[in-house]
Design brief:
Shape: globular
Largest sheet: 7 strands, parallel
CATH architecture: 3-Layer(aba) Sandwich
CATH superfamily: NAD(P)-binding Rossmann-like Domain
CATH class: Alpha Beta
Length: about 270
């Protein structure tokens, strides 16, 4: 157990299940003070209880990522209780399972709002407080889909690509001021991401992709993210053998093109 997280104030989005829940439980064990956010308040309360943190060290802050226009107000609530924000983990998001030709503009904008603009707005809300104390860590959960496009993932992949451009720029602008940025790119992790994925007209997929059934556990993914924070890594890839495709794309682009076309979107 690392002492690094003891008494650190950490805000986690998407904390009601999956990687977010696993991060909350593991960071609580390491002495962190937590702010847990997600859309489902009932599930947030469940996770909050599992952390076994006293009320002094725990704050439940439910909201929907599709509207982060009041992000500065949310950050102010955290500051009122804790007086600082040490780490923001932008983990919440929504995947996609729909073809470009069938996806409505409303769904495309929704996916960009949830996966890109929410992370931007929350980071901009906490950044002034981090700059004030010349210390802060922003963790952004992207995806290997942020490195290449894939079947049925057009808007999701676009949003994840955008995260890299934005937060790599934020890192360069603010690293001399004490701000660190970690980009996390999960491959296949056993969570509800495919169950909650958006279809063309905004309804949910409601099915667990076969490729995720025996994937890396959310608990193991969280462990890797925590180690990466401790190591001050700038980017990590989390998953199984599917991560090999990243190196193949970089060093053997023609081989990548052949391989990616043979993959199942599910």
């Amino acid at each position: 157990m690392s002492e690094h997280f003891k008494d650190k104030v950490i805000w986690i989005t998407g904390a009601s299940s999956g990687i977010g829940e696993a991060l909350a439980l593991q960071l609580a064990q390491q002495g962190a003070r937590l702010i847990l956010s997600a859309r489902r308040e009932k599930e947030l309360k469940r996770v909050g209880a599992l952390t076994k943190l006293p009320e002094l060290d725990l704050m439940l802050l439910p909201f929907d990522l599709k509207d982060t226009s009041r992000a500065s107000g949310l950050a102010a609530q955290i500051m009122n209780k804790f007086g600082r924000i040490d780490i923001l983990i932008n983990n919440g998001g929504q995947s996609q399972r729909s073809e470009v030709s069938e996806t409505t503009e409303e769904t495309e904008r929704h996916l960009m709002e949830v996966n890109y603009f929410s992370a931007v707005n929350l980071a901009k809300a906490v950044l002034p407080y981090m700059l004030r104390i010349k210390s802060g860590h922003i963790v952004v959960v992207s995806s290997i889909a942020g490195k290449f496009g894939f079947y049925l993932r057009s808007s999701y992949s676009a949003a994840k690509h955008a995260l890299h451009g934005y937060f790599e720029s934020l890192r360069l602008e603010n690293e001399s001021k004490g701000i660190k940025v970690l980009m996390v790119c999960p491959g296949k992790v056993k969570t509800n991401i495919s169950l909650n994925a958006s279809l063309a007209k905004g309804t949910t997929h409601g099915k667990m992709d076969e490729s995720h059934v025996n994937a890396l556990s959310a608990e193991d993914a969280a462990k890797q993210i925590i180690v990466a924070i401790l190591n001050n890594d700038e980017e990590i890839f989390v998953g199984g053998k599917e991560l090999a495709i990243i190196k193949i794309k970089r060093f053997f682009p023609k081989m990548f093109s052949k391989i990616i076309r043979k993959q199942s979107p599910y």
